[in-house]
Amino acid sequence: MSGAESVGDERSEAEGGADEEVDRTPVPDADVCVVGAGPAGALVADRLAGDREVVVLDAGPRFDPADRLARQERAIRPFYGRPDVWGVGGARDAHENAGDWFYPLNHARVKGIGGSTLHWQGMVMRLHEDDFNSGTERGVGPDWPVDYADLRPYYAEAEKELGVAGASDNPYAPPREEPHPMPAFEPSYSDSLFAEACEELGIDMHSVPNARNSEPYDDRSPCVGYGTCQPVCPSGAKYDATVHVERAEERGATVVDRAPVERLEHDGDDRVTAAVYATPDGERHRQAADAFVVAAGGVETPRLLLLSDSDRYPDGLANGSGHVGEFFMDHLFAGAGGTLDEETRQNHVGFYTSACDQFYDEADAEQAPFKLEFFNYAGPSPVEMALTGDDWGDPLLERLRDGYGNHVAMGGLVEQAPQADSRITLADDRTDDRGNPVPQMEWTVGERALDTIERANEIQVEILEELGADVEWVAGPDATGPAYHHMGTTRMSDDPDSGVVDADCRTHDLDNCWIASSSVFPTSGAMNPTLTIAALALRVADDVEARLSGM
Amino acid sequence: MELTRRDAAAALAAIGATGGVALGVRRATDDRGGGPGDDEADAAWDGEGPPDDEAVREAMTAVARVLYPEEVSGIGAFVDRFLDGRLDGSAHAEGVRAAVAEVESAARSWYDAPVAELSAAERDDLLRGLGADTAEEDPGGTAAERVRFFVVNELLLALYSSPTGGELVGIENPQGYAGGAESYQEGPR
User: Fold this and answer.
1) Are the CB atoms for A248 and A42 separated by under 8 Å?
2) Are A392 and B66 in contact (CB under 8 A)?
3) Range of the domain at A340
4) Which residue in the set B70, B157, B178 is minimally distant from A225, CB to CB?
5) Is residue A4 very low, low, confident or very high in pLDDT (cuts 50, 70, 90)?
6) Which residues does the annotated region (Disordered) include (chain B) (predicted)?
């Protein structure tokens, strides 16, 4: 089937008679119930499926791989917004904004098998050693109850699982024990232009790890350059969590789509007994299991716990600390760009190949860690330009030639310090398609992050000016936005009064409930979170297995 | 700069249709004398009801000759090949047929002739008269918005997601085209 509008949303009952055949009833005698089929849930399920009866419940649909090119058309055509590419929005995904800062939640997530890795950029850095000791080393936020050494072997495993292309040329990266599974992508032409300017300024450039195949890996294609990585990779070269969902299913796991979990039930012994979920036919089911892993991301995870309040947990399940939903963090974007008087060869690919972590560990109480990125997709994409405007023929071609060809840009991510009043709560007066209160975003960003954005901008502009660019835009504190990394809302702590989960990511209040998500990050660092999510998920799986074996 | 079969295949690959499969469908359709809406075998579409595939091809090619820049050649074969993959059994194919019917209806009403028989200037005026120049594309919108989506942007998307269309602008691996992971490393050509 061709055509962007021919893509089914896989959500209406009228769609696809085959859906009638899907069995969404509970799995008898399940050992482990995983909530969420994004990267964390998929990795946990895959890791446990060989020896355990595992069931995964996801709120969203199972997307047809054959639709990916049509989804790419949606990404290019101006009629479709970003949420339309993967069918996000509507009553299912309703939410409220009540904070100082607006948060575009439905641009920032995908619900369905594969989760937000379906639309992610695919950048997979390890956090730095000091990120795990932010309180001690920088005087900001708590230390994590685990450190880099604890996660280091899991980082290496996660890189193999996802398939990471990288090199060991980054002198600022934390220590690693072996090369990345695939060689790094070669630098871009525009990287070579930046390199001259950076050399003049004494600024180091290095490769970046991509969860994107630079060569065939794991029976998946190498990158073929579609250039629409974010929001969709038609070739499968970019890792997404359908890889591990499929593997888990091959190993015996049951994965149920369109099965939003509405609450977790518990017994009098502080054990979760069942996940109550809805199905498209309007029925509700109870999935019982010995262990539960909540892997629903930084927004839906705290929402589910808050929805699961009970007489014993009147403020929400696993919320003895009162911190469920608090300390919501994202990374802040800092950027600048302009034009040169020469060709820069942008928009051939949708990912970047060089970065600068030189300033990351300057971080202290006043300056947040931040990293810099050298874009390969600065300025407009000609095909997207061609679909807007009131011209065609030669005038259109002239406009495209004028608009494309000589842009350069830099981006960067800045850490947001955790603060309790940046949080996810339940909306008082708005419910979703199932009648459950929707998440309310109260996102607040502190001065340290805003000051650091200015510092990143200074360096970016300095580099661009050294390059000879006419700097045309700067995304500073007033124009920044989130990187769509939801973190912190069920923070990890050894102290049950200070955090929701312990160092093993197991909830303090309930013995058989784990959280695998960036929601457990006590602080966020400034590195893209997914590799850390994956490493923690693998570690969670090991802990679940160990405790099930000991039961 | 000549558009080739490779360009058409690339454009189809960019937007989720496979020309090869659909080509077989078309031939079978031709054997039985026409596409959807064609009640009389071997008779040219008379402007009433949904246009058959050949009428869609003629109209789209005529429109493409206005939408594409002067320096592009090979338009007829390119559009034909591209539509091999787009005129499948999808909702999108029906949208293309319906939008072409709108364009043809206006052409016959305003100029008393099918689109393919209009001069280039008349075709340009026709599209602007329909409002397809200023409309924003919308597959479920007004006639102007649907013509923008299914005719104008359909053809512009095909051209500028192809390697030859990209090269016109200076990018041989445009977004939507699987042109490999090497060209981004190379300097200006």
Assistant:
1) yes
2) yes
3) 4-550
4) B178
5) confident
6) 26-52
Predicted complex ipTM: 0.94
Contact: B88, A225; criterion CB under 8 Å: no
Look-up of token digits 């500028």: B160
Residue B42 has phi, psi (to 5 degrees) of 70, 0
* Model confidence pLDDT, tens digit, residues A244-284: 999 999 999 999 999 999 999 999 999 999 999 999 999 99
Distance between CA B43 and CA B46 in Å, rounded? 8
Distance between the two ends of chain A, CA-based, in angstroms? 51
Q: Which of A41, A32, A43 has its CA nearest to residue A157?
A: A43
DSSP state of A503: T
Q: With both helix axes pointing from N to C terminus, report the angle between B19-31 and B5-14 in degrees, rounded to the nearest 10.
A: 110
Distance between A147 CA and the closest CA of chain B, angstroms: 37
CATH number of residue A312's parent domain: 3.50.50.60
- Give the sheet arrangement for strand A32-35, strand by strand: A254-256, A54-57, A32-35, A291-294, A513-515
Every domain of chain B and the residues it spans: 5-36+50-176
> At A382, is the secondary structure helix, strand, or coil?
helix
Other C-beta atoms within 10 Å of A364: how many? Answer: 13
Q: Max Cα separation, chain A?
A: 75
Q: Give the separation between CA A549 and CA A128, rounded to whole angstroms.
A: 33
Instruction: Give the model confidence (pLDDT) of A43-64 as tens digits.
Output: 999 999 999 999 999 999 999 9
pLDDT digits (tens, 9 = 90+) for A117-151: 999 999 999 999 999 999 999 999 999 999 999 99
Residue of B60, B66, B65, B47 whose CA lies nearest to B114: B47
Bridge partner list, A507: A501
For chain A, the domain total comes to 1
Predicted confidence (pLDDT) per residue in A27-40, tens digit: 999 999 999 999 99
CB A351 within 8 A of CB A358: no
The shortest C-alpha distance from B93 to chain A (Å) reads 8
DSSP readout, chain B?
A: -B--HHHHHHHHHHTT--HHHHHHHHHHHHHTT-STT--STTPPP-SSSS--HHHHHHHHHHHHHHHS-TT-B-HHHHHHHHHHHHSSSSHHHHHHHHHHHHHHHHHHHHTSS-GGGS-HHHHHHHHHHTTTTTPPP-TTS-HHHHHIIIIIHHHHHHHHTSHHHHHHHT-SS-TTS---SSGGGS---
Q: Helices then strands (H, E): number in chain A? A: 12, 20
CB contact (8 A) between residue B177 and residue A227? yes
CA distance A222 to chain B (A): 9
β strands within A47-166, DSSP E: 54-57, 96-97, 165-166
